[in-house]
Amino acid sequence: MQEIHPNYESCTILCTGCNTSYETRSTNVKGYHVEICSACHPFFTGKQRLLDTAGRVERFNRKYRKGDTVEAVAAAAAAAAAAVAAASAPSAPAENA
Partners of 27 in the beta sheet? Predict the structure, then answer.
């Protein structure tokens, strides 16, 4: 009889968002890297926090953008970072006139 099933061994799952590691069993012994897990996902924690400032859309646009120079891409990234910083900064209370 042939052995057709893969080996089921222990492996590590590493969350790159919060640097938490989990031990589990899988046929992939190299392990897994995930961007978000139950320890840092807003649905499970009840807290909203910004994990990735650039985001997937900006990462996709940077990867597949054609014809842009390095300076233009760097300027766009700096503008996006400034917008995120401005959005996360607490607003000053309005003065009564």
Answer: none
Fill in the DSSP letter of residue 38.
T
Domain boundaries, given as residue ranges, for the chain = 7-51, 52-87
Q: Give domain 7-51's CATH number out of 3.50.50.60, 3.40.50.300, 4.10.910.10, 4.10.80.400.
A: 4.10.80.400
Best CA proximity match to 15, nearest among 29, 31, 27, 4 = 31
pTM: 0.42
State the DSSP H helix or E strand holding residue 16, giving kind and residue range, or none if neither: none
CA torsion sign, 9 to 13 to 14 to 16?
positive
Dihedral sign of CA atoms 7, 8, 10, 16 in order = positive
- pLDDT, one tens digit per residue, over 22-65 is 999 998 888 888 888 888 877 777 776 655 555 777 777 778 87
Q: Is 75 helix (H, G, I), strand (E, B) or coil?
A: helix
